[in-house]
């Protein structure tokens, strides 16, 4: 009898998603690439000079950017790994005067570029046995995330050009949840966030996935990013929000 119970649990574990694979000592991998279409809003300032609204003064608007992620679930005693890359570079034109530091002033019409590349690396664990208890329907993950923010601003006119940049590491808390539905559909949510004084990040992702053929899937959702940085003379408080779509694999 015990033998059959063990076999049944093993079969359920194999049928469950990645957090149950980990219980058998196997590896589950999910990767995806796609496009993110954020609309920027908020304020930008450098060296305590002009504070500019990124959409009305800096002239930045919605654009399409690539995004990629890789999730690897390992045996239970080893933390799982989640990597994500979201490079963003907005371009526009000033609608008024802007003092970019103490020695550079730009007028209306000057070209503006604002780069905020975000790279995430999370170590997390799934809630033990939740996949088994729900027959692979529900999963919850908790862990820590390190986000590297590459921040750069550039302004160019006929008479002057100036660029400043910095890289800011921000430790974040990470929580995610998955709900596997009938018919190959799944709902997923991910939240990363923390206020560490020199930076505050709130990141929320909602995703609907559909398994198409074998390990392949398509997904779409909405992403909301709040990034505030007060470091190396940069003082920014910007929100990026918009839809995304992706294709990927999971096995």
Q: What this model shows, in words?
A:
The structure is a single chain. It is elongated and about 65 Å long. A hairpin with a 3-residue loop joins strand 12 and strand 13. It has one domain: OMPT-like (Lipocalin, Beta Barrel). 29% of the residues are buried. It contains three helices and 15 strands. The model is unreliable at 1-25 (pLDDT under 50). A ten-stranded antiparallel beta barrel has the order 1-4-5-9-10-11-12-13-14-15. Strands 7-8 form a two-stranded antiparallel ribbon. The chain has 251 residues and is mainly beta.
Overall outline: elongated
* Structural class estimated from helices and strands: mainly beta
The level of helicity is: under 10%
CATH architecture: Beta Barrel
Query: How many domain regions?
Result: 1
pLDDT below 50 for ≥5 consecutive residues: which ranges?
1-25
**Reading side by side through the largest sheet, how are the strands ordered?**
1-4-5-9-10-11-12-13-14-15
Strand content: over 45%
CATH class: Mainly Beta
Write a concise keyword list for the protein shown above.
single chain; 251 residues; mainly beta; Lipocalin; ten-stranded antiparallel barrel; two-stranded antiparallel sheet; 3 helices; 9% helix; disordered N terminus
Question: Which SSEs are present, and which pair or pack?
Answer:
Layout: H1 2-15, H2 18-21, E1 28-36, E2 39-46, E3 51-53, E4 65-73, E5 80-86, E6 89-93, E7 98-99, E8 105-106, E9 111-126, H3 130-133, E10 138-156, E11 161-180, E12 185-195, E13 199-213, E14 216-231, E15 234-250
Antiparallel strand pairs: 1-4, 1-15, 2-3, 2-15, 4-5, 5-9, 6-9, 7-8, 9-10, 10-11, 11-12, 12-13, 13-14, 14-15
